[in-house]
Amino acid sequence: MNQTPSAERLHITVFGKRNTGKSSLINAITSQETSLVSDMPGTTTDPVRKAMEIPGLGPCIFTDTAGFDDDAEGIGAGRVWLAAKAMDGTDIAIMIFRDCDPEEKEWYGRLSGKGIPVIPVINTGGPHGAHPQNDLARTARYAESLCKEKPVTVNPLTGEGIENLFSAVLHRLPDATSHRSITGGLVREGDTVMLVMPQDSQAPKGRLILPQVQTIRELLDRKCTVVCCTAGDAEKTIGRLSVRPDLIITDSQAFPEAMAAKPEGCRITSFSVLFAAYKGDIGTFTQGAKAMERLNDSSRVLIAEACTHAPAAEDIGRVKIPGMLRRRFGQGMRIDTASGNDFPQDLSAYDLIIHCGACMFNRRYVLDRIASARRQGIPITNYGIAIAWLTGILDSITLPEPCPGEGPE
Ligand SMILES: Nc1nc2c(ncn2[C@@H]2O[C@H](COP(=O)(O)OP(=O)(O)OP(=O)(O)O)[C@@H](O)[C@H]2O)c(=O)[nH]1
Ligand SMILES: [Mg+2]
């Protein structure tokens, strides 16, 4: 199974106890045998993901999870851990209520505590046929009192109530996804924006990387003129333009060339900085970068990569940033790397976390990691902002405005 919550899809995850009909519901939603269904409690083990397009909702990823009461000897705890991990990156949770017990209350609390909108659902079909009516009414009252909204009743076998469930998801969409823009207040209609995009050995063959494509698309939508060049051509490109660009957006590795080419009065920022704001919390990341002042030869830093990938020779997280840190603060520094799901729960051993740009992940996923670091009082920043600080240019670049409620207290 692909664990990567891809960037631009809405992530909807189904939670509930064993045998509440989670997999049956996923199958009803996707109109396919996506997930195995049986009357054996504990049928679903690892999370099961299915990508699909829902009219009105757009591209979604639905995730089925193991029952959070799974107590199978030896492996139950692992399944429950994976179900809890599936909360990371979840935009909207569907929770099937049945037993009205402390476990259901606890999991509802965990989800809502992470700021994830929860849609309460009652399976009127239920395992082995319908619940007695009085049970259903009691469960509905329980779910409503907890979630402060009427639960959606669905019958996965007949498909009854699925449309209401989609409407409920649609209703919660604004809470789940802040439809932010990448370039925000940095550009206006009619601006000329120059993009400095090195296409070096790390660039994928024959195509542009996602942040570049998304930025170009947004600038075109915002009626800007977009000029693209590689790092070595930055100065030549400026010379050819009849107007001074209003903004340069550069790959963070091409900062020196882009800065050298930048005409007076033109602002400069980087893709990583824009995506730090788009995918995370720019205020916290900036403060995290400034915490680097306190690092020394015996500090311990965690480099966190969202994806699991084979590191390239010139890898920014494995080679470039550790090299810059050690040159600045001493060769004795301990630098660990965590990729994919290996992000540690206990961060207390670290003086700083430097996160990748999370280009393949959604914002919720990054915010979960930021929240975890903040709870533990560990500074967190990201690649782009860290490099900007380490190269002394953080103060010369234009930062996007933090969103309300973001940033350090
Ligand atoms: N009659 C009827 N049976 C249902 C309905 N929904 C689920 N069931 C049955 O309930 C049993 C459990 O359903 P699953 O969808 O596997 O439940 P689950 O929550 O995914 O269970 P685990 O993966 O074990 O946690 C199966 O035998 C289903 O056929 C329904 O609406 N009507
Ligand atoms: Mg299941």
* Proportion of residues in β-strands: 15-25%
CATH topology of the largest domain: Rossmann fold
Radius of gyration: 24 Å
CATH superfamily of the largest domain: P-loop containing nucleotide triphosphate hydrolases
Mean residue pLDDT: 88
How many strand segments? 14
- What is the domain tally? 3
Could you tell me which ligands this complex binds, including any ions or cofactors?
A: guanosine-5'-triphosphate, magnesium ion
Shape, per Cα inertia axes? globular
Helix content: 25-40%
Q: Just name the CATH architecture of the largest domain.
A: 3-Layer(aba) Sandwich
What profile does the largest beta sheet have? 6 strands, mixed
Low-confidence stretches: 1-5
Topology as H/E string?
EHEEHEHEHEHEHEHEHEHHEHEEHEH
Q: Major sheet: order of its strands?
A: 2-3-1-4-5-6
Give a written overview of the molecule.
Helix 7 (234-240) runs parallel beside helix 8 (255-261). Mean pLDDT is 88; it is low at 1-5. This protein has a six-stranded mixed β-sheet with strand order 2-3-1-4-5-6. The chain has a four-stranded parallel β-sheet with strand order 8-7-9-10, with helices on both faces. The radius of gyration is 24 Å and the shape is globular. The protein has 409 residues and is an alpha/beta fold. The two termini are 38 Å apart. The chain has three domains: 10-176, Rossmann fold (3-Layer(aba) Sandwich), CATH 3.40.50.300; 184-273, Rossmann fold; 280-396, Rossmann fold (3-Layer(aba) Sandwich), CATH 3.40.50. 34% of the residues lie in helices and 18% in strands. Bound molecules: guanosine-5'-triphosphate and magnesium ion. Magnesium ion binds next to helix 1.
